[in-house]
Amino acid sequence: MNKGIPFWEQHIEKLVLGLAALALLGVLAIVALDLDAVTADIDNRVLGPAEVDEVMVAKARDLSRKLQPDADADIEQFASVSGDGGEAYRRRLGESIAPGTNPPLIAPSLAAILLPAEVGSADVWYYEPVIPEPKIQPMVMQTIDTIESSELDRVPTLSSMLDGGSRDVVWTTPVASIDLTAIRSELEGQDSMTDPMRSQIPSNWYNRRPYFVDIVFERQALGRDGQWGSATTVEPVPGMLSFREEIVDLMANSGLDAGFRQQVWLTLDDKVRQLEIMQPDFYLTVNDSFAEPALFDERVESASSDLDDVSDEEAARRQQQREIERRLRDRVNSAKRVEATLEELGGAIRQDEIDESKGGNSGNGRGGGRGSGKSDPNGDPGFGSSGQGKKGSAASASDQRRRLTLTLKLDRLKAEITRLQAEFEALNPAAAAAMSGLDDEAVEMIDVATDDEMLVWTHDLSVQAGATYRYRCRVLLYNPLFARSRQLLEAQQGLAAAFTIDSLTSDWSAPVEIKPPVEFYVVRASEDGGSLGLGEIRIEMYRYFDGSRRSEQFTVQPGEQIGRSATVTDSGTPTTVDFSTSWYLVDVIADPAAAGGSGLDRDEDATVVCRRIDGSEVRLRVPSRQIADPERVRLKMDARDAQSAG
To answer: Are 438 and 180 in contact (CB under 8 A)?
Structure first.
């Protein structure tokens, strides 16, 4: 026996075997004590270990019985199965597998493969432009002037629009602005979000620019009941370029075709002709009173806030200065437009140059622009350009007549500008330098193919004195799809019939009341005056008559009509002018709060009550306010200038 080996090494196998036996006994004890924790879920029942064997044996026997050849079949399970599966399958085979929206029918277009893209194709839907509405300008200008007799010879239909053979005329000029950029964007538009997609219209279908065929203004008149009447269309300005009547006639006779389209394109490619439709000039008048609407927002209007703390003389001087400044700006603006138009037409030309061309002096710059110096078949002399204009001798006879008229107008405008500048300098030398620089910047003709925005307007010669009107506007643009039915899908071929596209319609302008032929202002009023002691007023009256503003003063007592005929002297010749009005004086009432002013004592500043003869309106007038009225300042300057000219 080896006494050097430890006891645990001698008996290690026995120790391991003993520990394993103890572990096994422990596991068996745990299982025996926790048999109920072992369960199985069969047929929605929870079974213990003792029940599982019995259930599984029963299921095995049942399955073996059903598998025997003579076993009964259980067909109840198939009762709920639908029997139309085959029919439904065949029905689905016959249905379309395309999206819900049917694709457009396309026409055979073999030639489209050989043509460039800008020619267009009958295989696509084209975008339909929506022209945005113009923005009406709130202010509607009204003007009074006298048409030159030469204009009546040039435009015979104009005579029928004048009252009683007089050449005096009152007209309104409604104005709107149009967004040229947005319009060009619509013509170039496309829409890929629609089904089917809307493609861009080929650019050569509208010659890559918008053509404005017509500018349509509508007006409403205010009735006595305070309600606006039905909208009526303002007729084109007589003698000015217009396609409106021609289009109506051609439509009635099925004459609208590609040939007429080409005629319109050739005409409106000329910027002067295009602007004649969009911004028509007014006729040549005695006083050139019409001011270009481009500077409506820049006009210097009178304000009473800086006149409260100054003397009557200083207030009158400031009002006069503002009026001269307004007129000067208007005349400069008009002169710039005339100069730009003349440059496009071929430059200024005068009667002596026309006479020289009639003598056959052709080919030397100023005369004989047509080469032979002969008159054209319409009786118009064949003269060429006298300046550095863009059109030169190729100008048409109508352009040449217009050059003569515009040259005369420009000469008169420049003379008026010189006179107004001198008058303004006398009133305010410090501000004269700034005003003299108004005409330094040149003005170019508007081009609808490149400019962003422009104004459009018309002249309404059919207005009635005393009436109140308002205006709205829409533009008629050449339709790029016109006469393209063969290049359109059947669903869009109806769009090819219309020659123009109407824009959306603008809002209404502010109301404008047409001034009566005679205007009066109360410049003095006394409650105790007059032969009967019932009161008396002094009336200052203005009437535009035969090219001049005439002025007269009358004394009126309660019960008397305001105004009557009077004899005025014009260039040494007595002239009878009717200053009668439809008003009469009702009463003169002293106002204890009246402070006088404007050169009046308190007892001369009574409140005046006036009424229309038909009883439709009553107005109160106070002399101190009437004297300071800016409109009276304008009329007084007109009358003074007319007297000086006479």
So the answer is: no
52 & 201 share domain: no
Burial of 587 from C-beta contacts in 10 A (0-12 / 13-18 / 19+)? middle
- The reply to whether 157 and 262 lie within a common domain is yes
What is the 3 state secondary structure string of 404-473?
HHHHHHHHHHHHHHHHHHHHHHHHCHHHHHHHHCCCCCCCCCCCCCCCCEEEEECCECCCCCCCEEEEEE
* Domains in the chain, number: 3
Q: Which two tokens stand for residue 623?
A: 């002399």
Indicate if 581 and 505 belong to the same structural domain.
no
Closest C-alpha among 248, 199, 189, 203 to residue 492: 199
pLDDT at 566 over 70: yes
Reply yes or no on whether the pLDDT at 371 is more than 70: no
266-317 pLDDT tens trace:
999 999 999 999 999 999 998 888 888 864 444 444 444 555 566 656 776 7
Range of the domain at 33: 7-63
Residue appearing with tokens 């004989």: 368
Residue 580 CB neighbour total at 10 angstroms: 16
Average pLDDT, the chain: 80
Rounded average pLDDT over 472-484: 95
The answer on pLDDT for 103 being more than 50 is yes
One domain, residues 274 and 166: yes
Rounded-to-integer distance, Cα 458 and Cα 124, Å: 40
Considering the domain architecture, whether residues 177 and 257 belong to the same structural domain is answered as yes
Supply the pLDDT for residue 237. Answer: 93
Assess whether 466 and 534 both reside in one domain: no
The β-bridge partners of 574 are: 569
Specify the DSSP class assigned to residue 614: T
Reply yes or no: is the peptide bond before residue 156 cis, omega within 30 of 0: no
Q: What is the pLDDT of residue 133?
A: 96
Token pair of 85 as six digits? 């599966």
Report which of 519, 514, 285 is spatially closest to residue 416, judged by C-alpha positions: 285
Domain assignment present for 394? no
528 with 463, same domain: the answer is: no
Which of the listed ranges 69-83, 333-347, 381-395, 431-445 does the model predict with the highest average pLDDT? 333-347
Helix (H, G, I), strand (E, B) or coil at 389: coil
* Contact call for residues 142 and 515 (beta carbons, < 8 A): yes
Task: For 82-197, list the strands marked E by DSSP.
Answer: 125-126, 135-136, 141-146, 168-173, 175-179
- Give the span between the Cα atoms of 577 and 458, in whole angstroms: 31
For 596, which DSSP code?
-
What is the rounded CA–CA span in Å between residue 587 and residue 448? Answer: 58
The rounded distance, in Å, linking the Cα atoms of 276 and 269 is 12
0.90 exceeded by pTM = no
